[in-house]
Amino acid sequence: MAYQAGGQRSELRPVPECPEARAYLADYATLLQAVPFPSVVVDQSWDVVLANSAFETLFRGVGPHPTAMPWDNFLRFVLFHPDAGTVLGEHESRWCLPMLAHFAAAVERHGQDRQLQSIRREIAQDPIMEAAYRQGLPHWIRAVGEAAFEHDGAIRPLLHPDPRWGATDCRIVGETPKTLQELGYTRLTLVLREPRRTASAPRRRSRARHTAGHLSVVPAPEV
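RESULT FIELD:
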């Protein structure tokens, strides 16, 4: 999508053909830019349509990746970018598994979507992630319930590059107006909470590079 308020795309997304829809998105990008917290608009396959500067700032330290930059496709970033864990705290259990569960639901609804099909193939190429998706994930969903991968209202840890925030949490707030819904888009805002000030608060991790950003384990569900 051409209306991107922050970050650099590897390619532009197609814009809606309707001039009114394009004008609406242009104005919505202006609105998004005024939001102080990271906020993003994605389509059904998590391609990023719009993102504000706060979203770009949150992920400014991640290294380049051919397919999984956060302002290209956020689902790919969470699952496949080797630097995802440097920003998304408790990456595997608190971000990867919920996103895998959401992805599984999206595949059921939009199985012919080419982007989702591509992501599914990439999951299949990693034996550990494929095992997590096919065996571990159904068990995890049964144990924790479907609410565990609902984005709206979820509180998840972040490691913000701005030292004023540092190790903190965010509440994910879904706020999608009717016009965006009709275009097939969803808006999510990461409302940053007060930074953790305890002595045991984790420091931002060094940029340890991995061969892949995939799951290394299937965490046991919390009970």
